[in-house]
Queue: 4 jobs
Job 1
Amino acid sequence: MSDEVVFDLAEAESLAMRACLAAGASQATARSLVDATLSAALYGPAVLGFPHMVDYLDSFREGRINGDPAPTCERPYPAFFAADADRGIAQLGFDLAFDDLVAAARNFGLAVFTQTNSYTTGELGYYVRRLAGEGIVGIAATNANAMVVAKAGGPAVYSTNPMAFGFPLGEGSLPLIIDQASSATAYVNIVAAAAEGRAIPEGWAVDETGKDTRDAARALGGALLPFGGRKGANVALMVEMLSAGLSGGPWSLDTPSFREGSASPAVGLTIVAMMPGRTGDGLVERARRQTDRLQSHGVFVPGVSGIAYPRPATEGLKVPRAVFEAIVKIAGA
C-alpha cells in the first residue's frame, strides 16, 4: 500500500470542509482555513498543507481554537488595521480585513495589518501570496510558543518566528515568495522526522540537556537552534517585535503550546502591504526579468522555481496516508 493518497482538488476541498465543520468550526472559519490549506498544498511547503490541518482539527476539538469567533478590527490610523481574532484562526481575521487592507495600500502606497489573539498562522507565505495576487508587495511576521534557544545551552526564548516576503511578478507568473523560519528549520519538520523515525541534520536542534542532537524525538523534548547563530537569533528577536510587539500579543515566552492544553496561543501577526512603485513604473516587469535572469544562473527563486504554473488539471494532490486517514476519521465523526 502506498504511503500517499492522491486526490483531486475538489475532493480535497470537500473532505477538508467536512472535517473542519465536524471538528466544531463555523462555516466562515472552515472556509478561511480550507482556502489557506489548499493554497499551502498547491504552492507552499508540503508539511504546511494537510499535515498541519490535523493540528487545527485537534485544536478545534480540544479548545485551543474558538471555532465560531467574532473577530474585530479597528483602524486607529488611515492605513493601520489593528485586529483581534477572538481566539479564532488567524486566516479569518485577515480575510475579513483583506479588501480594506488592499484598498488602503493602493490609496496610501502602504498599509499595515496587525492582529492578536489567534491560533498560529499556518503557512505564512499564504498571506503575502494573497497580496501578490492583487499586485501588492507584502512582508509578514508571526510568533508562537517558545521552542528556540538564542544559543546552545540556553533556555528556549523564541518561537521559530517565521517571516515571509512576497513580490508580484506580473500576470501569468507566480509571485516570488520567501517564507522561512528564524530557526535552523521549521518545527513541523522536526515533528515529521520524529514521526517517521528519521535523523535530523546536525545544527537543527538540541536535546533536553542542551546538547546538539540528530535524534528528532529528543529534539522535541529539547529546543531548536536559530539559523546562523547570533544573527539568526537577532532575526528571531526582530520578528518577535514586529509580531508580538506591534500587535500587543503575548511574547513567545508567555505563549501556550499550539499542540496541547486548552488555552489559545493568542499569537500576534503583522503584515505590511506595499505598492510596487507608481503606475507605469514597470517595476513588476523589471523584477520578473531579474528572477528570470537569476534562474538562468542556476539560482533557486522561492515560490517560482520548480513549481508548474498553471497547475495541470490532471495533477492530483498528494497527502500522506496517515494524515489522510486522520482527517477522514474526523470528517466522519
Job 2
Amino acid sequence: MTDSPAAAGSPASRRALEVAGIPSFRRISEHLNHSTYARRKHLPGVCDFTLGNPHQMPQDAYVDALRDALHPHNDQWFAYKTNEVDAREAAADSLSRLLKVPFEAEDLYLTTGGFTAIALALKSVTDPGDEVIYSLPPWFLYEPLAVEAGLVPVKVSIDLETFDLDLAAIEAAITQRTRVVIINSPNNPTGRIYPPELLRQLAALLDDASERIGRRIYLVSDEPYNRIVFDGARFHSPAEFYPYTLLAYSYGKTHLSPGERIGYLALPPSMPDRKELGTAIEAMQLAMGWIYPNAVLQYALPRLETFTIDVGQLQQKRDRMVQELGGMGYRLRPAEGTFYLFVHSPIQDDEAFTEALSQEDVFVLPGVLFETPGFFRISLTASEDMVERSLPHFRAAIERAGQDRPEDAEIKLPTGLIPIVPASPRKLP
C-alpha cells in the first residue's frame, strides 16, 4: 500500500487503515452498528435471525463443565497455560473418531476460538504478498484476516444453484503467488456439506497446481460446524484427502457459546514435515499475543467433547422454515449442516427486502454482506417462538414484493424425513 494523504495524516498505521477500509468489512460494521437492527435488536418481541447467537439459556451440562473447571485443584490452577496435555488428547481423540483419521495430540494447537486458528494457520504458512483464494459467499472475516496478515485475497464464485465449490474457478485463480486456499464445510452461509468426490477432485487440483507453480499450496479447512450436521449425514473433511490441510475448529459453534473463546488448529498425520511446521506454529501462538485459551476452558475441554447442543432441535427449526418459506414462494435449499439457511431474495435488491422485514422487527442478513447480492441469510439459532412469530411477516413480505410464486419454488424435504429430536445434550460418537 502506498502512502496517501489519509495515511500520512492519521495516527493509525497503513495496515490498520487498509483493514478498516475493506468495503465488505465496512458494510458489516455499518449494518451491525447503525442499522434498524442495531437500534431495535434489544427490544422485546423482535425476531432475531441475524447472527449465530443463542436465544435460549445454555445447557446445564455446559454450565456444569465450566463451573467444575473453575474450582482450583492446586496453586497453579490459574497459572500460564499453553497447549495443555489433557485438553489436546481429548480433542485429538474426538476429532479422530469423527473423521476416522488418527490425529495425534501433539499436532493440535489450542487457540482462542476458530477465528484465531484461521489467523494462526495463515501466518504460519504464508509470507506477505502471498495470495489466498476463497469462495463467495464467504464468512465475513476472511478478507480482514488475510489483509491484516499482508496477504492478497483472491475471490472466486461458487455454483449458486448447488452451492458447491467451482473447481474450475479455483484452478483459474491460482498463480505463482498462491499459497493458501480456504474452504468452509459445512458452509456458512449456504449450509452445504461438500461431498467426498468434490474434495478428492480439489485435492488432485491442488496437487497438480502445486507441482506446476513449484511451491506447495496449503488448504485451510474452516470447520466450526463439523458436528452440526442434519439427517444423519456423515461429514467429510478435506484433511481426509489432502495431506497439506490445516484444520481450524471452534467449540463456540458446537455448544452455541461464541463468547467462550476456545478452538484449535490441527495438522493431519499424513502431512509431511508437520513437526517442523508445528514448531513454527507454537512460536506464532506466543508471538501473536499468547493466543491460548484460558485455563478454565482448557480444563473443561475434555467434558465439552462429550456432548453438543441439541442438533435435532436445530433440524426441527430448519424443517419448519424450509417447508413454510418454500410454501410461500421463497426459493431455498435445505441446509445440510450449520445454523443457517441462504434464501433467494424475492426482489433483486436484497438490502431493500431485508430492510422491509426489519421494519416489522424480523431481522435477517442481506446477501450483499456476504458479497453475494440477491440472497438473505437466516440463523436457525433463533428461538422456536421467534420462528413462529416471524412466519406471517415473511409471508407478507413476499406478497408485498409482488412476486408470482414459481412452480418450482416450494422446496420439499427428502422423502421419509421425519424430524426427531434426540435427548439433549446430544452425545458425540
Job 3
Amino acid sequence: MSRHVAIVTDSTAYLPPQAMERHRIVSVPLTVVLGHRALEEGTEISARSVAQALQKRKPVTTSRPAPEMFAAAYRAAAAAGADGIVSLHLSAEFSGTYDAAVLAAKDAPVPVRVVDSGMVAMALGFCALAAAETAESGGDLDETVAAAEKRAEGTAAYFYVDTLDYLRRGGRIGAAQALFGSALAVKPLLQLDGGRIELREKVRTASKAIARLEEIVVERAGAGAVDIAVHHLAAEERAAALAERLRERVPGLAELYVSEVGAVIGAHTGPGLLGAVVAPR
C-alpha cells in the first residue's frame, strides 16, 4: 500500500468496482436476510433478486456486519502497510454498521477513525472517494477525515419511490410518517437530512415527481464543478433518461455515475426507486 492511511467503507456506498480498485478502498458487506437465508450484499445476493422477492411479498430484512468483519478488514489493512485507517459508513440512523465498526476499532493494530457519514449510497461513496484522494496525496488521519466530512457537508441526496410501504415496514422514514394517511394519493419526493430520510415534497403523479426530482438536482448542482450519481432499483430506463437530461442541463458536471442500488437499500425502498446524489467538488 503506497499511502499510510487506508480507507474502509461498507457495501451500501455502491462505488463502481473500478473506483474501489483504483483507490484501494475496502468494502465490508452488510447482510440481507431473504426468508431464512442470510446473504452478503454484493457477492451473494443482487438488488434484482430482492426486488423480485419484494414483488412476491416475501420477507426481506437486513442486518449490520459483525464487528469481526471490520476487525479482519482493519488487520488486513495494517498488514498491507497502513499505519492508520479511516472507516466511513452509512448513517447510524439507518443501521448498526457504525457501532460495529466502533467496536472493532478498539482492538485494531493501528489507529482507526470511524466516521458516521450521515449518508448512504453514492452520497457515502463520494465521501469515501474524497478520503481516498486525500490519503493518496499524503494526508494524515485528521486531514483524511476532514476531507470526507467536508464532502458530506456539501452533498445532497434526493429520491423518488413508488410507495412508502417498504420504508414504513423498515422504520426508515422519520418525519415522513405524516404522509401515511395520504400515501396512496401522492408520489413522495424524499431527501437525506441529518442522517435521516425526510419528506421533501408531495407530488400527484410519478411523471411529475420525476420531473420535479430533475429540477431539484439541477438547482442544487448550480454552475460549479459537481459530481452526480443516479441510482435506481428495477427502473433502468428511468435512470438512463434522467442521467441523459442531467448531462445536458448541469454545466459544471464532472463525473456522472448511473447504477442500480444494492440489495440492502433495495430492501427498504422497493422496486421503482429513482434517486440522485449531488456532490459539489
Job 4
Amino acid sequence: MAKIHEEVNSIIFGQDRVIEETLVTILSGGHVLLIGLPGLGKTRLVETLGTVLGLDERRVQFTPDLMPSDIIGSEILDEDEQGKRHFRFVQGPTFCQLLMADEINRASPRTQSALLQAMQEKRVSVAGHYHDLPQPFHVLATQNPLEQEGTYPLPEAQLDRFFMEISVQYPDRDAERDILLSTTGSEVKTPKRIITATDLLEAQELVREIPVGESVLEAILTLVRQGRPETSDMKDVQKDVAWGPGPRASQALMSGVRARCVLHNRLAPSIDDVVALAAPILRHRMALNFAARAEGVSLSKIIDELIDQIASS
C-alpha cells in the first residue's frame, strides 16, 4: 500500500488528501464521486490508478444524448457461416475494472440509472439477460461544481450509492511548480504497475477482516445518528437539516476506517480515522432545509460540529 501511495504521488502532485481518500474507497470496494473544476488532474488520477493497481481502465465522456446502451452494451443481430441469424451481446465500456464517468451529471437520468444499477449490482441487464461485470469493478465519476446549465443533477437516492464525495481543490504553489516542471518538458514520467487486480481483491478481503474497537464503533454510531434530525439532540441539526445520513453512511465509515488504518500501516482503526473520513462520507448524504439555505447556513459547518462532538468525547 505504501508503494502504491508513493507511485501515485509521483504522478499526481498536490492532491495527497484526494489520493488517500480514493485509495480508501477502492480498498473498501466502493465508488467515488469527484467534485472539482476542469484541469485539476481527475482524469490523470484515474489513468494512474488503473496502471498502478493493474486494472483495466476506461473513460466515458457523459453527454445529454448518451444512451444506456452506449455504456452497458447492446444486442446486435448477427449471422453465422451457415446463414443462421442470432442476437449477440456486444459489451459496452462498463465492462472494465476501473471506469471514469466524466461529468456524470451531463447524461440523462435514464443513462445515470443504468450506470448506478451496474455500480450497485455489479452486473447489467440487457434484453432480459444478466451479464456479470469484471471483478473488481469501481467507478470514479466526476462533476463540475460551477457549470450547471444543461445538466441533470443526481438524485439524493443515487448519490447515496457513492462511497465518498471527494472535493478536488487547486494545488498549492510548490505542487503547481512541480506540475509545470514534470509535465511540460521533453520527458513525462509514466506510472508503473505495483499490484494486479487479483492482489487488489485479496487486499479488499483482508481489509474486511480487520477488527473495529468498541469505541470506534460507538463514535460512528454517534456521528451518524446525531446527523439525523429525528434522533439528534443538537439544536442546529434539528433546525437546519432536512434529512440525515442513512445506514449506508455507517457502513461506509466502518469499511473506510479499516482501509485507512491499513494505508497508515496500523493494525486497528481509531477515532482519528472516523474524524478524517466523516466529511467525504457524510456531505452527499445530508441536505439542508429551505430555511437554512435561505439563511446561508453551510452544510460543512454542520458536519464540523458533528465531528467536534465525537473528537472531544
